[in-house]
Amino acid sequence: MATQQPPLTPEDQLDRVVAKLTAEMGRLDGKIPYIATEGRYVADAGTDAVWWTNGFFAGMLWALDSLHPDDRFRALARAHEERLMTRYQHFSAIDHDVGFVTLQTAVSDYRLTRDPQARERALLGATVLAGRYNPAGQFFRCWNQPGRAGWVIIDSMMNLNLLFWASRTIGDPRFANIAIAHADTVMRHQVRADGSVYHIVAFDPATGAVAGHPQGQGFAPESAWTRGQGWALYGFAMAYAQTGFVRYLAMAQRVADYFIGQAEAHQWLIPADFAAPATTARDNSAALIAASGLLDLAHLTNTPRYKVAARRLVTALLPQLDFDPARDGIVPGTTGQYHDEGRGEENQTIVYADHFYLEVLMKLTGHTFTVWALPPKE
Ligand code: GLY
What we know:
Layout: H1 10-27, E1 35-37, E2 40-41, H2 56-67, H3 71-84, H4 98-113, H5 116-130, E3 133-134, E4 139-140, E5 151-153, H6 160-170, H7 174-189, E6 200-203, E7 210-212, H8 226-243, H9 246-265, H10 284-301, H11 304-317, E8 349-350, H12 351-364
The protein binds glycine.
């Protein structure tokens, strides 16, 4: 008679993830991965040097390097970092995602190795992000398309630590001051009273006045795109950790309470938008981004219910995970945007979901290195 297996502990899961990523590395053949289809990363996302996901695999490699500090993971992470430096030859295409990419490559490299070249690369990334600051609106510009000079997207909260890191590293508060001004603008205009968030707020770039709420990656401008909820929750928790400003903690908690209430209502399986009609579009990456932020909030506020919620989110998706080392990609069920319109990014196995799964496992097993949530001192 078959006996029921106990669920895998976070330690078991971490072992399987390390084994799987090690096998994947050997199959990448120089490619920077994005979506795994039928168990294989095929396309090379790195051919578009500015694409926002290009740092996620390197970020996982640096996390693994913190567990096993030998050349195994480091050499490939550096190769990705070097390759992605070509983005500076496409300057007009670089947007605020320079933060996503730089934190996971050069900043992580420098934090773990103290390599002087990585430090220079990381400071270059921070300088480019700071150069996007608009003093009239007190935000940094997110996207580059014409007519979007005043658009701020909630994802930008994940980039603030590049600025905080730069200020700390060179002992100059100007980068941190930009991060604080941007976070205050997001706090005032992007988080609703119920804890849901706008994906996009359009400001008049000349005056900073709110000009509208364009349709973003969620169901509708007034809905609650779940990955954006995750970015806000985690982003404000990190802004609080960096500054000690309780206004950011209050924002993180407001978004966290909304997320937990919605997750309960959805049996802890996260759709692409909480406020959409019944949909088949899921977002397991949103679950994991939120779980990672909730673990930080639990730690920062000594509040066990945030940790309980984070564990529930992980447990709910455990039966879906692919731990087979012969196949690429671990976490299925991530949707690029609610209105997919043929992009082929609905319910896919996308590299950033794996990244946040690894990060959550490292936090649950007591490992201290994380790519995003910088400690106050290193
Ligand atoms: N651009 C970040 C995201 O799609 O979540």
